[in-house]
Design a protein that fits this description.
The protein has about 400 residues and is α/β, with parallel strands linked by helices. The chain has helices at about 20-30, 50-55, 75-80, 90-100, 105-110, 125-130, 130-140, 170-180, 215-225, 250-265, 305-315, 335-345, 385-405; strands spanning about 5-10, 35-40, 85-90, 115-120, 145, 150-155, 160-165, 190-195, 200, 205, 230-235, 245-250, 270, 280, 300, 325-330, 350-355, 365, 370-375, 380, 385. The chain contains 13 helices and 21 strands. The structure holds ligand PMT.
């Protein structure tokens, strides 16, 4: 997610959602960020510093006068950090921060901070909607503070409404979006992901093992880097990435319609979906009955979506110089088969996937790919998380786009 090596201060204030901050910190540490935690005195009633110290390996600050060394942590932390995230942010903390009150370690650090600031309000709905809280949040938003909208649902006070702290995974995604470079700003990118399903009758279909993880990782990374992303997705069980427009499709024919519809207004297409090459020749309106013998299913060929947009791109007249990136899922002759798809489909780049491996391809968290380019050359990165592979694909695709347009790097 691009958080490796980033310095993040998590500020925890005194609300029941403080327990969720432990999971937030754990996830940030897992992303290899350097995380430090500062707590208010009220937060100590809800969560213990020992928990955060164990998770980060760093001393937790909550006492202005308990600082070590030069006793300048309240100045240094907010200046050394790439981001300060306050989760949960109570109405009291927001009011103090908006009005420049500095009466403890965390609020003092905020006034001296030069890092980007993200606050995640969490409180009772009436407190959230109170004119004082709203006007304090307006003040902060105008100052350039990022504010993550709280979720809706059951609240600790027994009522239901807006005011829930978003789930830690969602906060991490927001953090990554705030921190990420914005080199794809202004671009429109189509990503396809997941399997297609080709119906036989009302209860049966043909599909494949794609989970959508690879395509969703690409869509999420492109959105974090500032692109307007349309994710055309077959059926999956994964949460839609932040800031991405999702178009849900089922069959290859539906995916084709969606891709063709969006194609004229895009700069890049990355096709990670596993599209069924064939579909049953007929859809049976009623459930097929078991017969006495074997069953032979007649299949017809699906359109090759990538080849179709490849020939559209060849004929483009609007000067947009679209970049087309395909994937090749292979169990043998990886390079030869991928190169043949690169050429026959008119692509700029193809990402070859050896799907016979246990740690790459379908349904894995990691991927091992080889990237082949129209202009020649093969790049063979090591085994990486799908998120890291996504970043690399976007780096290469953007470099191709810039080169096609004659732009400097
Ligand atoms: O979703 P995951 O579980 O994370 O798995 C990731 C993945 C293995 C699905 C992904 O990394 C991958 O390799 N996707 C491509 C799968 C595939 O269908 O490969 P292919 O070699 O059959 O197709 C080549 C390219 O043509 C692909 O970009 C495909 O989207 C496209 N295609 C294929 C057939 C068709 N009718 N239309 C197409 O556009």
């Amino acid at each position: 997610m691009g958080l490796r090596g980033k310095s993040i201060v998590v500020g925890v204030t005194g609300g029941i959602a403080a327990y969720k901050a432990a999971e937030l910190v754990r996830l940030l540490v897992r992303q290899e960020a350097f995380v430090r935690v500062a707590m208010t005195a009220n937060a100590l009633h809800f969560a213990g510093p020992v928990t955060f110290e164990a998770l980060t390996g760093q001393k937790v600050m909550y006492d202005m006068y308990g600082q070590e060394g030069t006793a300048m942590e309240h100045i240094r932390w907010g200046q050394e950090a790439d981001l300060v995230v306050i989760a949960p942010a109570t109405a009291n903390f927001i009011a103090k921060y908006a009005n420049g009150i500095a009466d403890d370690f965390l609020t003092t650090m905020m006034l001296a901070a030069s890092a980007r600031i993200l606050i995640c309000p969490a409180m009772n709905t009436k407190m959230l909607l109170h004119p004082a809280t709203r006007s304090n949040m307006d003040i902060l938003a105008k100052r350039g503070v990022y504010i993550m909208a709280p979720g809706e649902g059951e609240l600790a006070c027994g009522t239901s409404g807006a005011g829930r702290l978003p789930e830690p995974e969602e906060i991490v995604e927001f953090v990554a979006t705030v921190i990420s470079k914005k080199d794809l700003e202004g671009l429109k990118i189509i990503v396809t992901a997941g399997p297609t399903i080709e119906p036989i009758d009302p209860v049966r279909f043909i599909t494949n093992r794609s989970t959508g993880k690879m395509g969703y990782a690409i869509a999420g990374a492109a959105a974090r880097r500032g692109a307007a992303v349309t994710l055309i997705s077959g059926p999956t069980n994964i949460r839609s990435p932040l800031g991405v427009e999702i178009r849900s499709v089922r069959s290859a024919l539906e995916m084709r319609s969606a891709v063709i519809e969006c194609f004229s207004d895009c700069d890049m297409v990355i096709k990670a979906a596993a599209v069924s090459d064939y579909r049953p020749a007929r859809f049976l309106e009623e459930k097929m009955k078991k017969g006495p013998g074997d069953l032979v299913l007649e299949m017809v060929k699906n359109p090759d979506i990538l080849a179709e947009i490849g020939s559209l791109a060849e004929r483009e007249t609007d000067g947009r110089k679209r970049v087309l990136v395909g994937f090749a899922a292979e169990t043998h002759d990886l390079i030869e088969n991928a190169r043949s798809k690169l050429n026959s489909k008119g692509l700029d780049m193809i990402v070859a996937n050896d799907v016979s491996r246990k740690d790459a391809g379908f349904a894995t968290e990691t991927n091992l790919v080889k990237m082949l380019f129209r202009e020649g050359g093969i790049e063979e990165p090591p085994l990486m998380s799908k998120t890291d592979v996504a970043e690399l694909i976007l780096d290469r695709a953007e470099a191709i786009r810039r080169k096609k347009l004659g732009l400097s790097r």
